[in-house]
Design brief:
It is built from 16 helices and 14 strands. It is α/β, with parallel strands linked by helices. The chain has 2 domains: 345 residues, TIM Barrel (Alpha-Beta Barrel), CATH 3.20.20.150; 61 residues, no CATH class. Bound molecules: D-xylose (XLS) and nickel (II) ion (2 copies).
Length: 440
């Protein structure tokens, strides 16, 4: 097959002083951090839909991307050829994983039978490319939102046959994910939500969503797929409200419907900000509840209130993220999937490299800084000091459940008032972080 990215060699680590913009300055795949190679901490994945199907179209104009390997009409042959391009890109970039939706990799065709056959043909090509390159599937998913049959949602549609079609589609997507050795399967709400509560039976819709996820989990186990299921929070877009609003909402949903043993969170940065949270909040919340699964890495724009899916470049943010990820024991079998797209104005193939290199370096640097913070216990010590009073006998007894309102009232009646509070020292904490940003 002809090379698609001519003139671009394998991207190598050249160290922080390199000025080669087609090299890594921080991502050194085999370098050890906390005793583990960077590649195993970060588990980078390329998102097939943005990298290879993104056209650059927006509500004001059509696509702009120059992709010489694309044919005028999408066919299965074209989809198979695109697999070669995708794997050339991933190999040159040095990522170990990718993620896809069924309809990203193969055209849908005129019927379910045709869609399944198309998917099988492209899956043959994906399997061969995986075999040839060693690149693996991080997770698969199904597109349950583009086709007009999903106009009212998929599992939460008011049309029962839409639900049935979605079930058939996900059944096939799980089979293909299993066949390709995927380590996970993701549910993202798509259109599972509402635009208007007057026409919506919310109870019925969320019951249906849970029934759907149970069927998916049951079927996966039946065929021997042992990968991790993920639920990806997003508060809105395209719907005004989506049932997978944020980590806390999703975890409540999973527990309420008995799915908590099977499904973890796939947390996306830009979705967190749309929900009014920082991604650090989402990671901490999911982590402390035991639901941290995987990450869709991107970033929004503070001046554009939408899921702009930009590539992450902020070291401050990746430091926050990696600190939480290390704290909760890492992401495996999940990873860091670049659910991000090059800007409409960045339409040349080489921009795909610049975008991913920047994201990978930002996370590698965040990882190094987070590890340095942890090695010195710089933040941990300050947090412990802040809660020092809880290490007293009283604190230990309350935490152990051996105090009551009556016993605490007795104590405070005797003392008259609580001991004075100490400073929270937020600015000191922030300055410590900046010191590590300078030096690590
Ligand atoms: C859209 C979502 C989507 C999921 C996969 O906003 O991020 O890309 O990650 O369906
Ligand atoms: Ni996503
Ligand atoms: Ni998104």
């Amino acid at each position: 097959m002809a090379e698609a990215f001519t003139g671009i060699e394998k991207i190598r680590y050249e160290g922080p002083s390199s000025t080669n913009m087609l090299a890594f300055r921080h991502y050194d795949a085999d370098a050890l951090v906390e005793g583990k190679p960077m590649r195993d901490h970060l588990r980078f994945a390329v998102a097939y839909w943005h990298a290879f199907r993104g056209t650059g179209a927006d509500p004001f104009g059509p696509g702009t991307m120059l992709r010489p390997w694309e044919a005028a009409v999408d066919s299965v042959d074209n989809a198979v050829a695109r697999v070669g391009v995708a794997f050339e890109f991933m190999q040159k970039l040095g990522v170990d994983y990718y993620c896809f939706h069924d309809r990203d990799v193969a055209p849908e065709g005129a019927s379910l039978t045709e869609a399944n056959a198309n998917l099988d043909r492209v899956a043959d090509a994906l399997a061969a490319a995986q075999e040839r390159t060693g690149i693996k599937l991080l997770w698969g998913t199904a597109n349950l939102f583009s086709n007009p049959r999903y106009v009212h949602g998929a599992a939460t549609s008011c049309n029962v046959e839409t639900f049935a079609y979605a079930a058939a589609q996900v059944k096939k997507a799980i089979e293909v994910t299993h066949r390709l050795g995927g380590s996970g399967y993701t549910f993202w709400g798509g259109r599972e939500g509402y635009q208007c509560l007057w026409n919506t039976d919310m109870k019925r819709e969320t019951d249906h969503l849970a029934r759907f996820m149970h069927m998916a989990v049951d079927y996966a186990r039946e065929i021997g797929f042992t990968g991790q299921f993920y639920f990806e929070p997003k508060p809105r877009e395209p719907m005004k409200h989506q049932y997978d609003f944020d980590a806390a909402t999703c975890i409540n949903f999973l527990r309420a419907y008995g799915l908590e043993k099977h499904v973890k969170m796939n947390l996306e940065t830009n979705h967190a900000t749309l929900a009014g949270h920082e991604i650090q909040h989402e990671l901490e919340y999911a982590g402390m509840q035991g639901f941290l699964g995987s990450v869709d890495a991107n970033t929004g724009d503070t001046l554009v209130g939408w899921d702009t899916d930009q590539f992450p470049t902020s070291i401050y943010m990746t430091t926050q993220m990696m600190y939480s990820i290390l704290k909760y024991g890492g992401l495996a079998p999940g990873g860091i999937n670049f659910d991000a797209k090059v800007r409409r104005e960045s339409f040349e193939p080489v921009d795909l490299f610049h975008a991913h290199i920047g994201g990978m370096d930002a996370f590698a640097r965040g990882l190094k800084i987070a590890a340095a913070l942890r090695a010195d216990g710089a933040i941990q010590k300050l947090v412990e000091e802040r809660y020092a009073s809880w290490s007293s006998d009283l604190g230990k007894q309350i935490e152990a459940g051996s105090e009551s309102f009556a016993s605490l009232e007795k104590l405070m009646l005797a003392k008259g008032d609580a001991a004075a509070c100490t400073s929270g020292r937020q600015e000191l904490f922030e300055n410590v972080i900046n010191r590590y940003l300078d030096n690590a």
